[in-house]
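Workshop exercise sheet. Pairs work together: one partner reads the sequence aloud, the other fills in the structure field after running the prediction. Swap roles for the next sheet.
Pair: D.N. / O.F.
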Amino acid sequence: MPGAVRLRDCEILEKIMKRQAEDKRLYGAISMAPAITLLPWGLLTRKRTTGHPAFFGKLPTFWAVKTNIQISGELTTSRGPGTSFQFALSLVEQLFGESTAKSVEESLLLRDGYQNPKNEEFNSIDWSIDHIPRVLIPVANGSEEVEVVTISDVLRRAKVDVMVASVERSLRITASQGTKIITDKLIGEAAESSYDLIILPGGHAGSERLQKSKILKKLLREQHQSGQIFGATNTSSAILHKHGLLKEKRTTVYPSETDGPTNHLIIEGAEVVIDGNVITSLGLATVTKFSLAIVSKLFGHARARSVSEGLVHEYPRHLTPS
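Structure field:
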């Protein structure tokens, strides 16, 4: 909200969607959109439908179902941000078949081996601070949009001051799957401020470009030397390693990055690992739990659980201290 309302009020979109339904082509909606957008357009008639719990009561009583995904003819609906991967994979399966959907599922680290892996914490320290936390997320062409958007979204829902900064010459970057992202600042301007936490998103091409940024390298070293918090997801853990910032630290690493010598201990099977002031994640579909782990460390489990509920995401069990 108010996005679903603005979609509802777009007459051109309404015509497109009604024509889609009339032609019996696939259409769908997620979160508040089934109730706020599709219902007023008359596109839920005699359709089994789900949606965000906060708006569930607005759906037609006898056709509303409390499932993460609901397919009813050409219509597919889902509950919220926390079910968006399932929603998208359902559409992929309907469009391309089960085999393609399974392949995409595995590439996103959603296959069985990554469904319920453990989260671990070592050398626990207090991350709480007496002001609104400031977080820097540096990005580049080729960064994983799933990670950039999810991390910044979850942290902002928790009332964190998030700065997304481009290491490119332009504020606009093109992410790994072609999504255009407009950042808040260029890295040079962002570097004029200090941050409580710096998070590097993954993506092979993006990680390579982040690693080449001299400004970012300086920021990370200063963060490390001052004992401040920093972390990485996916392939970007390699940046921290190459800059010498993971010595004797326990981490989790994106599967393809496990080869080669390291000076840190890789925790097998873990989705999120915290070691003192360093946090790492496998990335991709695991970054929601990564982000919620950060919220929990900064503010406590109550706020993390509240954010999780708004996302319609099952709040993970507490990190296992070691």
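Discussion prompt: The chain has a mean pLDDT of 92. What would you look at next?
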